[in-house]
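Let us work through a complete example step by step.
Step 1: write down the sequence.
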Amino acid sequence: MENQIQAILDRNKKVEADKAWETSLTRKLFIALLTYACAWLWLYMIKQPLAWLTAGVPVLGYLLSTLTLPPLKKYWLKKKHLS
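Step 2: predict the structure and record it as tokens.
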């Protein structure tokens, strides 16, 4: 019984760590940086003027989505599961 409880506690720790990573600023900034680098490289390769600036568009979209989705999720959960 004690082993089962410990296994559940260990699993919960892992789930909490995964959730913390999914919502972390580090993860969001890394994805934004990687997105920028890929967009810039592609735009540079096709000789797009102002590639360094244009590459910021998808990054802004991503960052805005990370700001708007949590409140939308909270609203949806409230309406869907607490009504």
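Step 3: interpret the result. Residues 5 and 74 are 31 Å apart (CA to CA).
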